[in-house]
Amino acid sequence: MALTRIKQFNKLYFAKVQITFVFTCSILIAFSLRFELSFILADRLPLAFFIINSLIITHLFGLVLGFSALIFGAILSYYFFVPPYESWGLPDSYHLSYFCIKFLIGSLLVLMVAWVKDQLRELWNHH
C-alpha cells in the first residue's frame, strides 16, 4: 500500500517536473527568437512571440500556466524590447499604451483558447 502511494507520488512529481521544464524552455525559446530578431523588429511587436508561446502553453497545460507564460513573457519583453531598453523606466505614452493593449489582447486570446478547449472537451464528453 505504501509502495503504491510512493510510486504514484513519484509519477506525479515527475510529471510536474516535466511540465515545469517544458514551460521554462518554451519561454526561453520565445525570448531567443525575439532577441535574434531584435535588430530587424527593434521596438515593434515586443510581445508577439510571447503571446504565441502562451497560447501554445494554454492549449497544452491549461489556463494558469498560459497566464504565467504571458506574464513572464511580458516582463522579459518590457525589460528588453520596449524603449528605454534594459531598464525599468517608463517608456513614452505611445509605447506604454501599445504594450498594454497587446498584453490585454494576449490575455483575451489565452482566455479564448482555454474556453474553446473546455467547450471541445464538453462536446466530446457528450458523445
Low-confidence spans: pLDDT under 50, at least 5 residues?
A: none
Helix- and strand-based class?
A: mainly alpha
- Strand-residue proportion: under 5%
| Terminal CA distance | 36 Å
Per the principal axes of the C-alpha atoms, what is the gross shape? globular
Mean pLDDT across all amino acids: 89
Number of helices: 5
Number of strands: 0
Write the layout of secondary structure elements.
Elements: H1 2-36, H2 38-41, H3 48-61, H4 63-81, H5 93-126
Account of the 3D structure:
The longest helix is centred in the first third of the chain and has 35 residues, at 2-36. It is globular, with a radius of gyration of 18 Å. It is built from five helices and no strands. The relative contact order is 0.12. It is an all-alpha fold and 127 residues long. It has helices at 2-36, 38-41, 48-61, 63-81, 93-126.
Jot down its keywords:
single chain, 127 residues, mainly alpha, 5 helices, 83% helix
Summarize the structure.
Helices cover 83% and strands 0% of the residues. The chain is mostly helical.
